Each structure stands twice: as C-alpha cells, then as structure tokens.
Amino acid sequence: MELSRHAPVYLILPGKPTLREQFAADELSRYLFLVLGVKAEKADSAIPGANSFLIGGPGRNAASAAFLTKEEFHGALTGAEGIFLEIRDNIALIAGSEGFDDCERGTVYAVYEFLERYLGCSFAAYSGPGVHAGEVLPVLDWIALPNGRYVKAGADRSYRTAIVQYGEAAGCPIHELNLPFISWLAKNRYNRILTWASIYEAYKETGLVRELEKRGIRLSVGHHESSQMWLPYYGNRCFSEHYRETHPEYYRLESDGSRYRPKDADGHTGQWILCSRNEDCIAQVAENLSRWIEKNPLVDTIAFWPNDGIAKQCCCEKCSRYSKVENYVYFQNEIAKRVSARHPHIRIDMLVYVDLWECPKGVRLEPCLRADEAAWGKEQRRCGKPDGSCLSKTEFETNLLSWKEAGAEIVYYDYYMGVYGNRQRIIPMADEIQSIWRRFAELGISGAGTQIECFNLWNHLVNLYTFGRTAYDASLSFGDNLLALCRLFGEGAEFVMQAVRRMEEALDGEAIIGFAGKYMIEHVDRACIYGLFEKALAAAAQRTERNNIRLLRMAFRYSELETADPSNARRIEATRFQEYDDPSGELAYMAVHFDSFFHNNSQYGIAFPVTNTDTRSFVPNQWYCFE
User: Would the CA dihedral through 56, 59, 60, 62 be positive or negative?
Assistant: First the structure.
C-alpha cells in the first residue's frame, strides 16, 4: 500500500456501524489528514485499484468477510480487546475482537496501533489545544506500507483503570484538559475510569460521558461519595429524601447515644458511617442503587466505598457483636446480592484498606463483588524493585488473595502518581511494572487502577504510560515501553532514555511511595541528568519534540527544587500545597506559567502544587521558552 497526498483513500465500515466503529473510522480519517493531508472518503465496498481501509472484522463488515474468513479471524483473536491488522496490497483490515463484551475497544485500539506502527505517530502524551507539545505526528508526502499482519490475541488483563480524582483549584470536572486526557487513556490502553459520583454527574452535563462511550471506556462510580450519593444525609437531586430526618437509625450509633452527623457539608470523612446490620438501611441503599443504575446504563460498576479516614464503628447491639470489617463486609455482600438480582451485569467494588483490609475468616462473598485493595494497608508499599517484589509476594498479595479465596474478584488500587505527601515529585517506579503485571496473570488478579489526573501527566509520564501499555500487553519490557515512549523526543530520545534509566536505577525499593521521589532526587546524579537533557534539547529537530523535552525536564527540576527547599523540614507531609522559601523565584515561575493544577493553566498537563506567585527576579532561560 502506497499512501500519498495525491492518492484517494476510502473507508469501508459495517452497514450499521456501532458508535465505536464509527469513532475508529473518524480517528483514522483525522490522523491520515494530519500526517499525509489525505481526505478519506467513505464507500460501501473496496474500490478496485484504490487504497481501502476496512473497519471491523468479517463478522461485522461484509468487505472484511470478502478479505478474510471468519474462521481465520476468530482463530487469531481469542480474547477480548484483541487487535487485528493486515495490509495486503492496497487493502488494509483494521479490526478488533468480535463476540466479547468489550465495547469494540479492540477496533479503536487497532486504529491507534496502525497509526503508531505504520505511520510513526506517538500518542504517549498530550497537551491542551493549540500548544505544541504532547503527541508527535510525522508530516509525510508519501509512504509505502509493506504487506503483513499484526495480531494481539486479546488484552492480558481486563481491569486497567484510571482512578480520577480532582482537587482544589484544578478540581473542576470541566477542565479543558479533560478531553485530551480521556483521549490519551484510550490511546494508551486504559479501559476504565473509577471516579467520584459528583465528577460522573459533571461528566454527563459536559458531554464527557459520550466521549467515554465513543472510546469504549467504562465507568466505576462512587468513591468516597458513595453514602452521600445513595443514602444522602441532606438529600440530593437524585434522591430528595433527607434520611437524617426520616431514618436517623440508618446511620452509625455513636458511643454517646447520638447518631452520626457529618462534620461538614461535603461529608467525605468519617469512614463507615452506616449501621451495617440495619436490614431496612440495606434494603433502602439497594433500592436507591437499582433505581440509579436504571438511569445510568453506561455505569457497570458501583464503587461503594467508605468515606475517607478512620473512625469507630456503629455501637448498636447488632453491630457490636462483630468487628468493623465483619460488619463492612456483611453490608457490602447484602447490597451486592440485592443489586445483582435486578442487574446481573453490575459489579460492586469494595475498597479494602486501612482497618477494613483483612478478609474475615469463613466469609463467602457474592461473585459480583470486587475487592479493590489499596497498596496502602498499614503503611504505603515500597517501590522501584524491577523484580516486582515491592508488591508481589508481600503481605499485600497475601491479603488480596484471601479475598479471592472468599469468592471476590480481586484488583489493586495502586499509586503510580504517588500520594499527596509526595506532592507530584517524579517517582521512578516504571521498571517494576512488567514483573507486577506478569504476576497478576499467574495469580488470577484482574488488574489494577492507579490514581491519575488530567493535569499531572508529565510529572509521572513514564509510570502512567508504562502502566497502561503493560497492563494490556504484559510481554512489553520496561525497555520496550521506554523506547516507544521516547519517540516523543525525536532525535533527543537516546539522551532522555539514558536520563530516565538513571532515575529508575536510583530507586530500588528503599522508600515508600510518599517519599520515593525525595529519595530519588537525593541519590541520583543530578548533574548527569541535566547534561542529558541539554544534549536531548540540542538534538531534537521539531518544536513539539523540544517542548516535550522541556516538560519532562521541568518535572525533574521541580522535584529537585521542592525537595531541597529548607521549608521541607517544617512541612506537614500530607499537605497538598505549600508556600516555599524559593529565593530565586523559579518554583513560582513554573507554577504561575505552566501549572495545570493549583494555578489551573490548561495548556500543559503538568502540576506544581506551589502557592507562591512571586517570581522575584527569575529570568526564564531556554528551558522555559516554549516554542
């Protein structure tokens, strides 16, 4: 197949394309135009002698059935979310698995795989509209694509999740980076978002749920807002009843004889606030959930989590007979049983963390329950060992498997963007990811989710890219992913790869996640890292590549300045935002001009949780002069 600016291209879709098939064709058409200036046209069948792209497999597309038999196609794609690409002369088949409940994600992935594999596009990062950063696309006049076939039989792990949280000034679910972020998730093989109920409602209002559906990204909804959403203390727009007035007995009985009352209007703290053994409360929550599910068909998982924090359990006579975790599991199991009877496709995701961590002995769990264990039990896990032993074969794994033995599906809630105490410092823990995902496959762990937000991609780029890609294809080594990722940096890629490897080598399990970024900065050869970035910037030929180098280097520079600041000795580690001594004004300059978090600059997708605004006499050099 020869593609050029002068040769017509035709797209052949199924007779009645699904939303994902249509989106896949639209994405292919858009990028063919951006790379080659080609305006693809739709046709009902392959045009003799013309370049034709067949979207969808032979079970969906008659033109594909004429190109390849169903038997051969289905024999190649044996799992959900598989990718099938074949170029034969002037016809290219681009398709995903058929017959699986996977929303045709494989077809969407197949388009991106084609664009990366054959045209040289890189989708490893994003930026805001109009900014020359993020994706790197070649501009070609002509390219010859060889005949051949690429097949990925199916996704290696089914649960590949972005746990989306927003905070403070950048907490707005209508942030301009939301759509680039969602697009990035699909391009890099994330297949689910787990988020707060209020964020999901905002996504509906802003049209982002429709964008998720186009890409086949599914939703887990609830998070620390679950009780506030489905048994609202003060009522809400979905459930008008004020349960504090009508049914105070649904809430936790305190030791002084009163019932739970939220300390603030948000009510996100106080841990497990319900009376776990009140059967009427269980029935009410199950009813409310069922009614809500009927109105929100794109949500297939309810993340019915406790509020954050740790608190004493209900003191009523029934609850007092059991431990807090026994009561918590009883409630979750009963909810799952009732909801599943009406909505058998729905899963209930149960957060397993702090003192709600250990599986009670002898319990049998409903098969629709998912135990979502935070990699932060009694303390945060360590990170950075390439053999995966900071997580695998530890108490985290032993505990998670006990939930599997009790009948639940099991997944991890991990922290590849760190925790708030880390304050967005680079954490070099990508080199352990392949070992961890391979271990998941051995043990039947469905996968993992990681906290990730639309405004901090560059702080944790290597981790978050490697997480999604390896979750989908566990054969990819750290080196494979690093090579693919560093196409973002053009001719500077070799030097960036060296810098990333040095960062990864500086951390080998010595620190927990909250302090791992600080440990790396204190033990890496910083002069060498800066020298490698200098060489990369000098070598890169395109402005997007140079700007990408600037963003990754800026994340490293922020990590160094933040860690070295004298006020760290006085700082409360859990504080998200901090005023720094910052004598040069460089931290403030980063935050004011580039931050997409606290200062809400939507262009760059990088976070500096710095409250300073006084840039003093800092004069920007080549590292801050974006093109």
Answer: positive
Q: How many residues are present in the chain?
A: 627
Please say whether the beta carbons of 354 and 224 come within 8 A. Answer: no
Predicted structure pTM score: 0.96
Question: 163 and 453 in contact (C-beta within 8 Å)?
Answer: no
Nearest to 271 by CA among 292, 246, 252: 252
* Residue pair 188/469 in contact by the 8 Å Cβ criterion: yes
Question: Does residue 573 carry a pLDDT above 70?
Answer: no
pLDDT digits (tens, 9 = 90+) for 500-534: 999 999 999 999 999 999 999 999 999 999 999 99
**Structure tokens of 305?**
């989590």
For the record, the structure tokens of 387 come out as 């053999």
Q: Report how far residue 612's alpha carbon sits from residue 147's, in angstroms, rounded to the nearest whole number.
A: 56
CB 274 within 8 A of CB 335: no
For residue 610, which of 588, 584, 586, 585 has the smallest C-alpha distance? 588
- Residue 141 CA to its chain's centroid (Å): 35
Distance CA 172, CA 159 (A): 26
> Tell me, what amino acid is at 434?
Q
- Largest Cα–Cα distance in the chain? 83
DSSP conformation letters of 22-41: HHHHHHHHHHHHHHH----E
Residue 132 has a CB neighbour count (10 Å cut-off) of 14
Which amino acid is it at 276?
S
Backbone angles phi, psi at 527, to 5 degrees: -60, -40
Residue with tokens 């349960």: 243
Q: How far apart are CA 198 and CA 209, in angstroms?
A: 13
Helix H or strand E segment including 337 = helix 324-342
- DSSP 8-state assignment for residue 269: B
CA distance 272 to 329: 11
Q: What is residue 496's three-state secondary structure?
A: helix
Cα separation values, 55 from 20, 91, 96, 104, 199, Å: 10, 11, 9, 11, 33
Hey, what are 120's tokens?
A: 């040289």
Q: How far apart are CA 557 and CA 521, in angstroms?
A: 10
Confidence of residue 281 (pLDDT cuts 50, 70, 90): very high
Q: How far is CA 400 from CA 311, 374, 391, 448, in A?
A: 23, 9, 11, 12
- The structure tokens listed for 487 are 């196409």
Q: DSSP per residue over 495-563, as a string?
A: HHHHHHHHHHHT-SS-SBHHHHHHHHHHHS-HHHHHHHHHHHHHH--SHHHHHHHHHHHHHHHHHHHHH
- The SS3 of residue 235 is coil
Contacts with 148 (C-beta within 8 Å, 6 or more apart), sequence order: 86, 87
Mean pLDDT calculated for residue range 211-230: 95
Q: What would you report as the CA-atom Rg of the chain, rounded to the nearest whole angstrom?
A: 25
Band of pLDDT at residue 171, cut at 50, 70 and 90: very low
Does pLDDT of 170 surpass 70? no
Q: How far is CA 164 from CA 178, 221, 467, in A?
A: 11, 10, 15
Distances (CA, A) of 26 to 23, 36, 55, 101, 112: 5, 15, 11, 22, 12
Identify the pLDDT of residue 109.
98
Half-sphere exposure of 608 (CA within 13 A, CB side): 32
Q: Are 180 and 605 in contact (CB under 8 A)?
A: yes
CA dihedral 355, 359, 361, 366 (to 10 degrees): 130
